[in-house]
Batch of 2 targets.
Target 1
Amino acid sequence: VSARGVKCAVAAEYRRGGDNAQAAIDAGLLSAADLNGLNDWTDSGLMLKQWDDSSVQCPPPAGSVNGRDRFSLFNEPPRDAGAAAAATWKAYQARCASELAGYQIVGPAVHNGLDWMRDFYSAFFAACPECQEPASPLYVTYIAFHAYATASDTAGVVGSMVWTHDAACTLQAEPWALGRPVLLTEFGAQLNVQDNVDQWLTAMDTIFDPPASVPSVCIEEAYYFAEHGFGGLAYENEFQPSTTTTADSASRVVGKFRSLCFGPDSGSPPP
């Protein structure tokens, strides 16, 4: 937990590909049993990925994957897909009701701007009033979103991440949000650069230890994006060396995460 009360987490694949999640465990930043510290949905089956496909396999029993008890809905669905995504969730939940028992549900991870996120969630909850009822098996416990800085200068990255804090509070205050906890399930600096990790470290700094210009912190958990570059972009962001992240950069990422998330009031890193 950071000094401003944001729970530090990692968005990375576990036991797959570059395995930055395992690198974080090896560095003592996480434990393998960390309940919700790894966004390892690509391997674990703990996400209903496609907003328009309810036919996928039901999840493993709650708690069977490193003790995790959260199930996530949809990764970056289209802006106009809120109602259709709600229908997909209803159909999937009806088919997989027994397997989903014991899970808390994380709402769709929206992105691409505040109006975009509001439009999607407003339509989603309008089409699924049961998702607002705590007693319903369709109930969504958490609001989720993604945010990346695309500026090449430090001030621009800080500004983007300050906006991210403000956006979290705005979403939480929406009538459909009902004050629910907000999770930033991916964040970072999405830049096509190598040999430059500074903007990623700045993004981490601003989210986990925001400046005084952020009066209220509404992000309950923030997942630093530690995966290998994708879409042709070369990122210096990983917990381990790779074809795009140098050993020095990886060491600085580990050190920054440790210094922000395991301060004197945060306890010690897990063994």
Target 2
Amino acid sequence: EYSNSVRIIQLNEETHEFNEVAQFEHPYPATKMMWIPDANGARRDLLATTGDYLRIWNVVDNKSVRLDGLLNNNKNTEFCAPLTSFDWNETDPNIIGTSSIDTTCTIWDVTQMQAKTQLIAHDKEVYDLAFAAGVHVFASVGADGSVRMFDLRSLEHSTIIYESSDGQGGSPLPLIRLAWNKQDPNYLATITMDSNKVAILDIRVPSLPAATLEGHSQCVNAVSWAPHSSCHVCTSGDDNQALIWDLSPMPSRIEDPILAYYAESEVNQVQWSKTQPDWVAICFDKKLQILRV
């Protein structure tokens, strides 16, 4: 008996209310969920989730949900290494990349429902993975404190573009989240565990952040780039805030956000809508709020 569920909500454009159209049980808490990238609305309504495994769900007629596939690359054992996150390739939606606590990243073929390749990406757990604009390049972060960049055309090599530090010469601090700027793929954002700062990285200048965003008073939990602007990013954290930053002054220091929203409790997740870029969604407590920018 599973106690975790996924609900699918749809905006009723006549009543301007959000209605629940479907719900299904999910084994173990989902670590991430994504709709298939589909700017033109031409593809099937596929939803991917990660937890113990990668699952692909098909939402039929906005009513019923069926499991299209359970993707497992460890057929020889009944045990699984939980998946921490994943990303769905926008340029080629047949590709999904997952990250795992077993130090690996796996690239999946969605049509064939099987792994294309698996690689040991980090020295410790991998916490997040993100594709750049285009098909081939992706990056990952993990408990070893590094941001590593890969190219699907030559996976035997990776490039370390950043390593965290505690400032006292100690061991690197885990990096928990990664977001790639799709409008300007030279830039990434990453979050250090239990830190109130967000590092903006320029892959052309490894090792040193291009900017550090320090507007949160408690640890940052999520980051999302504007889908329609190369210089705006939204961050959220345990200080109940969602902040929007304008990075256009770089390389000058970015002092303050341009917009701030106070939620009722810690903001755990933020997503900036690609198809409706005037809207940002945040999650806190047991609530989802959709904010107009």
